[in-house]
C-alpha cells in the first residue's frame, strides 16, 4: 500500500499508511469497470510507454521536473472531474479539492491553481505591485529574476535589487537591512516586495531567518497612504525544505503574504503550481491569471494528478535527501568540489575548479547510463534509484581517474539546462 500523508494541527507531516482504509462501496461489474458513483469507473493499467518513461527518469539527474506520473496519478486523471473552471462559478471540483488540500497544509486563507511555477510567481508579484516606481529585493540567484524570461520588468514594471548573501548560502536579516530601499529618494525605486526562495540550489532558508526577515519587512516604515512591504516566497521546493529542516509548514508559510508552490518539481506532478495568500489577494490574482493566459477549461485532470502526487511523494522525500547526501559524500571522496551544502536533493559541483570539461562530464555520465546537465548540478527525485546513484558515482570516478592519469578529455561546446 502506498504511503499516505496528512498534516496535524501544527502543520507537521504525519504518515497514515498504517491506518486501515475505509471499506470501499464499489461494486465490480467487469475486469476494468465499477458501478459506484464515487469510485473509479475504469482501473488504470500501466502501459509500456509509462513503464519506459519511468525507467528513463530513474536514471535522470537533470532536474526533479523530469519525473513522470505514477499509476496512482494516472488513476486520478481518469477519475477527475471535467468541469469548466472559468465559466462555472463554483469552479472545478478536482481543482477545488487540490486548492483546499494546500490551504489545509499551509494554513493560508485561499489558494489558486496555475499552469506553471513561472506563472505562479509572476502572478503573485504582479498582484502585490501596483504602480511604479517600485522594486523587488531578492537573492541574486533568484528564479523569479534569472530564470523566468525577464518577466518581472515586463509584467510588473519592477526593478530588482539583487543581493549576494554574506554567508554564501542564503539571505539573512542583515542582508535585507543593508539593501532595502526606503521611500523618499526619487533616484531609487522603493522596495515594495521582498521575495525569498526555499530551497535555492538545494539549500534551505531556515525558518529562523525567514521569521526575522518577515518581522523586519512587515514593520518597515512606509508612507501612511502606502500598503506595507509584502513578503513573497518562491516555494518551488518548499516541501523539500520543511521536511529536511523538520519544521512546521504552517509556521513557515505564516512568514509570507504570498507563496508559490510548484507541484511539478519535488512533488512529481505532471504540471502546475499553487499560489496561496489571503482571500482578497487570491481574488485579485485571478484577474492576472486570466491576463497571463492561465484561464483553463478542464484543468481537473491535472489538478487531480497533482493531488495524488502530494499524497504519494511527501513521505518519500526523506529517502531522497538521504540518497543525495550519501552520493555527495562518495563524490567528495573522489576529489570533486561541491560548492554548496548538500541539505536536500541537490549536489552542485564546480567543474571548472576541478578542470573537468562540461562535455566530458556529460559523456561519462552517458557511458554509465545516467543523464546529467553539463552545468554540474545534480538533482535527485523520488524516482531516482540507488542503482542509478551508484552508476553516477562510477561515472565520476572513471572521469576523475582519467583526468589524473593525463588522458585528454573531450572538450567542446555543449548546452542544456542552465548552460
TrEMBL record:
Aromatic amino acid beta-eliminating lyase/threonine aldolase domain location, by residue? 60-352
Cited InterPro entries: ArAA_b-elim_lyase/Thr_aldolase, Low_specificity_L-TA-like, PyrdxlP-dep_Trfase, PyrdxlP-dep_Trfase_major, PyrdxlP-dep_Trfase_small
Q: Which branch of life, at top level?
A: Eukaryota
The keyword Transmembrane is assigned to this record: no
Q: Where is the composition biased (Low complexity)?
A: 25-34
Swiss-Prot/TrEMBL keywords:
Pyridoxal phosphate
Locate the region Disordered.
1-41
> Which metal ions or organic cofactors does this protein require, according to UniProt?
pyridoxal 5'-phosphate
Q: Which family does it belong to?
A: Belongs to the threonine aldolase family.
Q: What is this protein called?
A: Aromatic amino acid beta-eliminating lyase/threonine aldolase domain-containing protein
Output the lineage of the source organism: Eukaryota, Fungi, Dikarya, Ascomycota, Pezizomycotina
